[in-house]
Specification:
Layout lengths: L13 E12 L2 E12 L3 E5 L6 H8 L7 E6 L2 E2 L4 H10 E4 L11 H11 L5 H14 L15 H13 L5 E5 L7 H16 L3 E5 L3 H7 L2 E6 L2 E6 L1 H6 L4 H10 L1
Parallel strand pairs: 3-8, 3-9, 6-7, 7-8
Antiparallel strand pairs: 1-2, 1-4, 4-5, 9-10
Helix pairs in contact: 3-4, 3-5, 4-5, 5-6
Bound molecules: adenosine-5'-diphosphate (ADP) and magnesium ion (MG).
Adenosine-5'-diphosphate (ADP) binds next to β2 and α1.
Pfam families: ABC_tran
Organism: Thioclava kandeliae
Keywords: ATP-binding, Nucleotide-binding, Transport
């Protein structure tokens, strides 16, 4: 299984650099002294108990949440209050959520072309071609003219991934993309993510799918109480955890 941790697509180039980052929700210190460097093409799985700050951390990377101290640099752009920087980072970072967040009143194709047309100013016909390309990639081109409510959860999540890809992101963030799905639909979404990983996408995935972590991740980050407690390649993370907190977590999920 150590084979899987050799990622020919990973490079030394930095995609994301987080340094001494802290975040509070009011009085509550939710993220503490986060240091994390992600290289281009790297595949990171973020694990940890509920409430440990996993979602908050990845939401900080595209400024869905604001940090209060330290640095977050995405593809060379530091996230500050400068709206130009925020726009630039958002245009490079795709995000897929647990609840697919598709627009229910738009068709699948329209969901995929909305942002490219209105944000990227791409001509409609070209945006539709790109959308069909990515819908083929996630294996549901035949659903293009249906509405989200007509699709299964697994199909909707694959649309959400295709919709993100239509913006040509350099980095993809996944926040428990399979947690809301019935078991039989989890695999089709994970397969889509595996394919993306194999193509060299830089990915940060919050997931409880430890099989995915073992076979796809270059590195597993374990968070507890707002801190990165431990990180390692998946083999050592699962077979030789260092901290008591990690051991306790693994004993509960494996
Ligand atoms: P995880 O994704 O690991 O379950 P979260 O990042 O969602 O953790 O949450 C971390 C902590 O921050 C939890 O205690 C949660 O209740 C709290 N929290 C999350 N979002 C908010 C918010 N918008 N306002 C206040 N507290 C929040
Ligand atoms: Mg979460």
């Amino acid at each position: 299984m150590t084979m899987a941790t050799t990622n020919p697509k990973a490079s030394d180039e930095v995609a994301i650099r987080i340094e001494g980052m802290n975040k509070w929700y009011g009085q509550f210190h939710v993220l503490r002294d986060i240091d994390l460097t992600v290289t281009r093409g790297e595949r990171i799985v973020i694990a940890g108990p509920s409430g440990s700050g996993k979602s908050t951390m990845i939401r900080c990377i595209n400024r869905l949440e604001e940090h209060q101290s330290g640095k977050i640099v995405v593809d060379g752009t530091e996230l500050t209050n400068d709206l130009k920087n925020i726009d630039k980072v958002r245009s490079e970072v795709g995000m897929v959520f647990q609840h697919f967040n598709l627009f229910p009143h738009l068709t699948i194709l329209e969901n995929c072309t909305l942002a490219p047309i209105w944000v990227r100013k791409i001509p409609k016909k070209q945006a539709e071609e790109t959308a069909m390309h990515f819908l083929e990639k996630v294996k549901i081109p035949d659903q293009a003219h249906k509405y989200p409510g007509m699709l299964s959860g697994g199909q909707q999540q694959r649309v959400a991934i295709a919709r993100s890809l239509c913006m040509m992101p350099k980095i993809m963030l996944f926040d428990e993309p399979t947690s809301a799905l019935d078991p039989e639909m989890i695999k089709e979404v994970l397969d889509t993510m595996i394919e993306l990983a194999e193509e060299g996408m830089t990915m940060l995935c919050v997931t409880h799918e430890m099989g995915f972590a073992q076979s796809v991740a270059d590195r597993v980050i374990f968070m507890a109480d707002g801190q990165i407690v431990e990180q390692n390649n998946p083999h050592d993370f699962f077979h030789n955890p260092q901290s008591e907190r990690t051991k306790q977590f693994l004993s509960q999920i494996l």
